Amino acid sequence: MGKRAAILAGLFVAAIAVAVGLYLFRPWRIFTSSTVTEDIPSAAPLPVPSQEPTAEPSAPAASATPDAPAGPAAPAAPRELATGQLISHEHASSGTVRILELADGSRILRLEGLDTSDGPDLKVWLSDAPVIEGLAGWHVFDDGAYLDLGALKANKGDQNYEIPAAAVLDDYTSVSIWCARFAVSFAAAELKT
Q: Scanning 67, 83, 186, 190, which has the fewest C-beta atoms within 10 Å of its C-beta?
């Protein structure tokens, strides 16, 4: 009876270890992939100054041309504040990072052409850490200041992340796709203005 109890206890401990390992590592994520394709957001059109007279109407001048119908103005194009190319860290990754200021003054971080591995608890971070190639760069992004812009929406595609209005962009020099579960960078980009 003692040998049988030891075998059952060992099987129980092994089952617990497998369950914990599956929860932590989520090995099926190696085989999953998702794509998000978001357009660059357009801010509301800027108002067009009114062409209507404010005083009593008068006869039009002889040289005046008929006014074209006044429609809404086209939104102003976003202004690029910084850009960078992703380098691989823990997982092979590629893509472009852009920080854009929209016409309304809001700012977004945009990932374009992102291609990385899926993983547990992936985040998009602005960071003050240097981008270091190789193993030495995998763990530096949580050493200093960072701003969590939210969960990675997908491991492929074009994605936008809102940057809070209070964020001081001069405080951040890099972007990391950060795996919070294992405290490791999947990919990073140095921001250049």
A: 67
Phi, then psi, of 39 in degrees rounded to 5: -80, 160
What contacts 41, CB < 8 A, 6 or more positions away?
102, 108, 160
Tokens of 55: 């005083």
Tell me: the pLDDT tens digits for 112-167?
999 998 888 899 999 999 998 888 887 888 888 999 999 999 999 999 999 999 99
Run of H or E residues at 46: none
Closest to 105 in 3D by CA, of 38, 174, 164, 159: 164
184-190 and 156-163 beta bridge pairing: unpaired
Strand pairing class (146-151; 107-115): unpaired
Reduced to 3 states (helix: H, G, I; strand: E, B; else coil), residue 98 is: strand
pTM assigned to the model: 0.69
Interval 60-105: pLDDT, tens: 444 444 455 555 566 678 999 999 999 999 888 999 999 999 999 9
CB atoms near residue 67 (< 10 Å): 9
Which amino acid is located at 75 in the chain? P
Which residues have a Cβ under 8 Å from the Cβ of 95 and sit 6 or more positions away?
85, 86, 111, 112, 113, 114, 115, 116, 187
| Sheet of strand 94-101, all strands in order from the earlier edge strand to the far edge | 35-37, 156-163, 107-115, 94-101, 79-85
